[in-house]
Amino acid sequence: MELQKVDGRKARGEKKRRAIVEATLRVIERDGVAGVTHRSVAREAGVPTTAPTYYFATLDDLLIATLLWSAEELCDDMLKIVASGGCAREIARSLAKAVNENRSRTLAEYELYLLAGRRPELRPAARRWLDRAVEVARPADPVAFRAFLAAIDGLLMQGLIADVAPNEDELEPIVSFLIRGCDDLTAAPREQ
Amino acid sequence: MELQKVDGRKARGEKKRRAIVEATLRVIERDGVAGVTHRSVAREAGVPTTAPTYYFATLDDLLIATLLWSAEELCDDMLKIVASGGCAREIARSLAKAVNENRSRTLAEYELYLLAGRRPELRPAARRWLDRAVEVARPADPVAFRAFLAAIDGLLMQGLIADVAPNEDELEPIVSFLIRGCDDLTAAPREQ
DNA sequence: CAACTACCTGAACAAGTGTTCCACAAGTTT
DNA sequence: AAACTTGTGGAACACTTGTTCAGGTAGTTG
Description:
Chains A, B: Keywords: DNA-binding. The structure is a homodimer. By secondary structure, chain A is mostly helical. Chain A has helices spanning 8-31, 38-45, 51-55, 59-82, 88-99, 103-118, 123-137, 142-160, 168-179. Chain A has two domains: 7-56, Homeodomain-like (Arc Repressor Mutant, subunit A), CATH 1.10.10; 67-190, Orthogonal Bundle (Tetracycline Repressor, domain 2). Chain A is built from nine helices and no strands. Chain A is elongated. The interface between A and B is large, with 38 and 38 residues. Chain A binds a DNA duplex through helix 1 and helix 3.
């Protein structure tokens, strides 16, 4: 009991810290990275103006913390897409969901990508889902798999700038084309 | 002579206007959309602080004008990639150039994409190269072609967040995989 | 030449920014 | 209990932002 006893103050603080990060992500989803200010985040999180400054030395630190955290969600989302049993229908469904129901989240995730392009420290986080995808899929044909991963990014981005986002029926044939040849994406290690 | 005589004042104004747009694009390439302010643009263009406001009612108008204009360059660049004679080597070379020599320009172009995601008025411009690509290529297999176009976006984006951007040798096999089946992308109807 | 017009800009303003500071509240330890 | 640590938040500061505006300047016209 005494062992895992933690300072109640720190516990509450840590909770608030996470609340601030989550509020920041909501702001990014709504208004983009440009809309992130100490005050807008504080308002969104329902904390005083100075709270974000207290928990994060600088606005940049808050942004980076938020994006690193959101990168894990990106990773999960993407892996869910990739590992949809290698079935084109499932993959197409996930992609369609990303550009429709989860549009703002997807948009936020690509803001992360872009920011990573300018800030090397964010790159490992932004790239993580790509590395993990290769790990879990163990593709028989690495080249085909890289093409597949690239196309996922492209389909999502292009889906975000379409007048009406594509649905799963439109996406399915394209996905089919991409995964033909890597019949079962997760198959490789068996015979080798 | 008298016919095409234009007010010298207006001519100078139009020139300055274009200089401001070009300066804005340079700022975007260097610091991203976030770095665009009346003052930063004015400094870059070597004009007084109020000049951008004079020529563009609002900062947003300036940003939109710049992005619409840059979208034409994006279109040209992308078409150059797509229409590299349908040869994988050429396409790979163009892609490698985009993420190396022209890295900052490519980054700026994806800022346009992302902004278009949030501002419907920018979407037609951002999408233009996709439509034009289909026009000029007249692909025999539209599905394969869409997959190819998506993969271009993905390869570029992923190239931008890599620790070391890929070179043409790494890209070539992936491109080859993508255009297999659409042997000659520009082949379909040869009836001129 | 002067009159006119259209373009241009320096100074200024209100609003919003990141951040600091300090008094104080809440929790923990001695 | 007192002494300490940690969390909290209102006021304030220096600074940057977008935008306005009145006066000035260059180009055109009579």
